[in-house]
Design goal:
The structure holds two protein chains of two kinds. Chain A has 14 helices and two strands. By secondary structure, chain A is mainly alpha-helical. Chain A has two domains: 66 residues, no CATH class; 230 residues, MetI-like (MetI-like fold), CATH 1.10.3720. A two-stranded antiparallel sheet of chain A has the order 1-2. In chain A, helix 3 crosses helix 14, helix 5 runs parallel beside helix 9 and helix 7 packs parallel to helix 12. Chain B is an alpha/beta fold. Helix content of chain B is 35%, strand content 15%. Chain B has 17 helices and 13 strands. In chain B, the strands form two sheets. In chain B, strands 1, 2, 3, 4, 7, 8, 9, 10, 11, 12 and 13 form an eleven-stranded mixed sheet that branches. Chain B has a two-stranded antiparallel sheet with strand order 5-6. In chain B, a hairpin with a 2-residue loop joins strand 5 and strand 6. In chain B, helix 9 packs parallel to helix 17 and helix 10 crosses helix 11. The longest helix of chain B is centred in the middle third of the chain and has 16 residues. Chain B starts with 14 loop residues before the first helix and ends with a helix. Classes of the chains: A mainly alpha, B alpha/beta. At the A-B interface, strand 2, helix 4 and helix 13 of A face helix 1, helix 3, strand 9 and helix 17 of B.
């Protein structure tokens, strides 16, 4: 039953709520506005419409296509689990788990490399006028082509690349290190370079909002810098770190450029498998794999909600 | 069923029937529909006026055709870059019709999807891609035969080219190949050895070059080379290289997977620049690739050779088809096809790409022109024609009955 928020007594007791604007509305509209549930519905309608059009509609198509019946030149709408079976009965499952593993590895690497940078900028140098411009430098790579940015690593990692040349010149190695390029190492490095800013920025924002007084209090109480990081900075920046982790992990789930260009077929992620299915005119299979990845991501979020509660994200 | 195979049930229905079932559902608006975005040229104004041979070259007026459908001031050609001479002005000068060229990938699946389920056949007058797709495209009614009587240059086309692929269906010529070659392996002589001592695809799998060889990421020619190697050396029972069975595919892919897991391949390459860089930077010393890569390496001063394999070459050909739209403007479209078998185009294609064009008209043209090296063109034509007439090279079907299985298994290899 809708809650009527109007003032039936007309006593003028507004209890801190100003109804004057509503009362000036035409009588025809007033019942719509006075009804809390209806008003809420009208308020969220545009938001829901946009969400439905741009998010849920494409997702719905993916799920519909994922159970469509494949044909030589496309598919026929219907219901079959054949596409899911083609995923579970093949090498694609292994690629999926490799992707999950690499996602976790990337999150860990992003934390290792991103946390110190965010801490330096958000805590140690928070008052410096150079901090913000310097942090923006991390956004510069996004202004260039992702493919070219990835290809540029070949110049550094190749047999006659910069790294091998330096090591050879320094006498550290006698012959070029082949594993620098077209390897799991190269893919991890390439992805780290791409996704590190996704960890740094939210972590930096979270840390920069930690009150100076709290940091000073920790020091006044005899806390060493490491103790302050452990007991103050990390707990208070968890929302930012969590958002960064989600960005990085989801990015790896959709990554198809770096493994192809730097992996040399030695490591593959699930997005490449989806690309291959699309290019082979197997849209239902591609949709089934996408649906599985999506459901896995949703399951992860639900697990997080169950363990920690998603409200913590909002505390940033 | 083969290990790790996909579940597929194509049944006994004809491909035509499948198309009707598929009905252009969402696929047409997704993958196939993209073809429409590639920018076919305008139709020009249509008219019923009597038609003449030629019009003014200023292009504003529509060209008049005899009995070949509507007039047109611009032709849209969607073709593999290999067939692009990079200058179409000669055709416009001759006919008054400009050519709006759009690049297509040499990707059988994508090409068939865009033509059959998408709108490419309605958007482009001509589509140029692998000639072995002719049969399936004919079955789907998205290409149309050409009238050879309207193609004066046809009589000059080499017999090797005329007979090289399944381009004639039910007595009618559909695809008219304009560019072709026999592919093998590029290698660095300083690293691998003297050309006189190397005559097998085995260099790709030689332990001496472990981690220093590479295969193309796509299977279109790589599969046939490896199948030739396995068959010729009795290393596997390959029933049919041109139209491989699932067992044939398994034999090749399993062999390559074993090689890959042993660390034989540095990478699976794709794209021209990557191919050149891999060899020029000596990341690899032997690589299954296109012949022009060798020319590019030599231009850089490197000692590179293209393998003359005892197992035979992987032959291919690319040529234009008349699409549904092309059939509506038949005269103009056939004029362009004829031009692509003519002197300047022939000379230009062999000069800039090193590939075999369709006839000796290119040599004749080059002999009368200061812009081309007739000797080089003649030499290249002789070399490649020899590959087409030997008894070991194969012309693999790029859209076999096992197409989907092939893709799946090849992806298993390269993933």
């Amino acid at each position: 039953m809708a809650h009527d928020n109007s003032n039936p007594t007309g006593s003028g007791d507004r209890s801190g709520v100003d109804f004057s604007a509503q009362q000036r509305l035409p009588a025809v509209i007033r019942p719509l506005v006075d009804n809390d549930r209806l008003r809420f519905s009208l308020q969220v309608l545009p938001w829901l419409s946009i969400l439905g059009l741009f998010v849920f509609l494409p997702l719905a198509a993916i799920f519909v296509w994922s159970v469509a019946i494949p044909q030589p030149f496309g598919f026929e709408l219907g219901f079959t689990l054949e596409n899911y079976q083609a995923f579970f009965d093949s090498y694609r499952v292994d690629t999926f788990w490799t992707t999950i593993k690499e996602g976790v590895v990337q999150v860990a690497l992003a934390l290792v490399f991103g946390f110190p940078i965010a801490y330096y900028a958000g805590v140690l140098k928070r008052d410096s006028k150079y901090t913000f411009p310097l942090m923006l430098l991390f956004a510069i790579p996004f202004l260039t082509s992702y493919i070219l940015r990835t290809l540029s690593w070949i110049s550094f990692l190749g047999s006659d690349g910069v790294f091998n040349s330096i090591l050879l010149f320094a006498g550290v190695i006698n012959e070029p290190l082949g594993w620098l390029l077209y390897s799991t190492f190269a893919v991890r490095l390439g992805m780290l370079a791409s996704y590190l800013p996704f960890m740094i920025f939210p972590a930096w924002l979270a840390m920069s909002r930690i009150d100076d007084e709290i940091l000073h209090a920790s020091a006044d109480l005899g806390g060493s810098p490491l103790a302050t990081i452990r007991h103050v900075v990390i707990p208070l920046s968890i929302p930012g770190l969590l958002i960064g982790a989600v960005f990085v992990f989801v990015g790896v789930l959709g990554e198809s450029v770096v493994p192809v260009l730097l992996g040399g077929g030695n490591i593959s992620l699930i997005a490449t498998i989806i690309d291959n299915a699309v290019n082979s005119a197997r849209l239902p299979l591609a949709s089934a794999i996408s649906a599985i990845v999506l459901l896995f991501a949703v399951a992860l979020l639900l697990a997080w909600e169950y363990v920690y509660g998603l409200k913590t994200v909002g505390e940033i | 069923m083969a290990p790790n195979s996909d579940t597929e049930n194509h049944g006994d229905e004809s491909r035509r029937g499948f198309l009707k079932l598929a009905g252009g559902v969402a696929g047409a608006s997704t993958v196939g529909g993209l073809a429409g975005c590639l920018g076919g040229g305008g139709d020009g104004d249509e008219g019923d006026e009597d038609q003449t041979e030629e019009t003014e070259a200023d292009g504003d007026q529509d060209t008049q055709t005899d009995d070949g459908g509507d007039s047109v001031s611009e032709l849209s050609y969607w073709g593999v870059g290999t067939t692009n001479p990079e200058d179409w002005s000669g055709f416009e000068d001759e006919t008054g019709i400009s050519v709006n060229y759009s690049a297509a990938a040499w990707s059988p699946g994508e090409t068939v999807t865009k033509l059959v389920q998408g709108t490419a056949s309605e958007n482009f007058h001509l589509a140029g891609n692998d000639t072995t797709l002719t049969s399936v495209l004919h079955e789907q009614d998205v290409i149309h035969p050409t009238d050879l009587q309207d193609l004066p240059n046809w009589e000059h086309v080499y017999d090797e080219v005329k007979n090289s692929g399944p381009t004639e269906i039910e007595g009618e010529q559909h695809s008219l190949s304009s560019v072709q070659n026999g592919d093998s392996v590029a290698y660095l002589t300083d690293e691998v050895g003297d050309p006189g001592s190397i005559d097998s695809y085995g260099i790709l799998f030689d332990e001496e070059f472990k981690g220093k060889t590479s295969l193309e990421a796509g299977w279109a020619t790589a599969f046939h080379k490896v199948a030739l190697y396995l068959q010729h050396n009795n290393m596997a029972d390959i029933e049919n290289i041109e139209d491989p069975t699932e067992a044939d595919i398994d034999a090749v892919v399993d062999f390559l997977l074993e090689q890959k897991n042993d660390g034989q391949f540095r990478t699976f390459w794709s794209g021209w620049q990557t191919a050149v860089n891999l060899l020029s930077k000596k990341e690899v010393v032997a690589m299954d690739t296109w012949e022009p890569v060798v020319f590019a390496l030599r231009d850089e001063g490197m000692n590179a050779e293209y393998l003359e394999p005892k197992e035979g070459y992987s032959l291919w050909a690319i040529g234009p088809w008349l699409t549904n739209k092309g059939a509506e403007n038949r005269d103009a479209a056939e004029d362009l096809v004829n031009w692509m078998m003519g002197g300047w185009y022939n000379a230009q294609i062999t000069t800039i790409r090193g590939y075999l064009s369709s006839s000796e008209l290119g040599i004749d043209y080059a002999e009368d022109s200061e812009d081309f090296d007739a000797e080089f063109i003649e030499q290249r034509h002789e070399e490649v024609r020899g590959r087409f007439s030997d008894d070991v090279s194969v012309f693999g079907n790029r859209y076999p009955e096992t197409f989907s299985y092939m893709n799946s298994q090849w992806n298993r290899l390269t993933s």
